[in-house]
Design goal:
Blueprint: H1 2-29, E1 40-43, E2 56-59, E3 66-69, E4 73-79, E5 89-97, E6 109-117, E7 122-127, E8 132-133, E9 141-142, E10 148-149, E11 151-154, E12 170-179, E13 182-193, E14 196-205, E15 212-213
Antiparallel strand pairs: 1-14, 2-3, 4-5, 5-6, 6-11, 7-8, 7-10, 7-12, 9-15, 12-13, 13-14
Length: 219
Amino acid sequence: MDKILGILSKVILSFFFGLLLLFCSCKKDKTILKPKVFDIIQLDFDTNRVVSSIDAFINHPAGCGLIPSPSDSLDVDSLDLNNDLIIDCYISAQSWYEFLSASFPCVNYRHSIILASVQSDIQFTKSGLYNQVDTLNLNDILDSTKAWSTAITFALTVPSAPFSCNYLGEHYIGYRVIKENGYQYGWLKVKSANNGISIVEGALNRTIDLGIPAGKKVN
């Protein structure tokens, strides 16, 4: 009899132990994970600052079309896009003469506007094979699904400038900061002005690997 009672007690203990494990596992499965929240900081820019190497477009004496004037010029502005008071990017506009053709001299006058990271720890949204700027609309999501590059190229109204896209008006572009454990995503609102580029406003979401809608300013 004692032997039977001992066996029954072991069975009962095993049964309750199994129930306890089942209860704990069910409780664990129902644990609610806290969602990631935005940690957005707004960036300040001099909205009157226009990066431009061109004063005007003039007709070439040969009649081939418009060329930038002056023909050799450079304008550079530095940026702090991760808000750590250290320069991490620059935007440059350059016009230069480079002989390419005698029969069509207008293509000898080159022009580019480039936004680039200093230490390659910041990337920008790009489009196409030649790092053309990817212009975005309000509320477009900036995350890992976008194509990214440490340098992107803008162009205004110089049709001979190679490997660049036309950029006119006001648009959003995306950028992200490379961190040890992931990425922080941000946006810039940029407009063409006086044959150059002006940054109107921007914001950075410091929450790692959480994308941000273009134009979002609050948490």
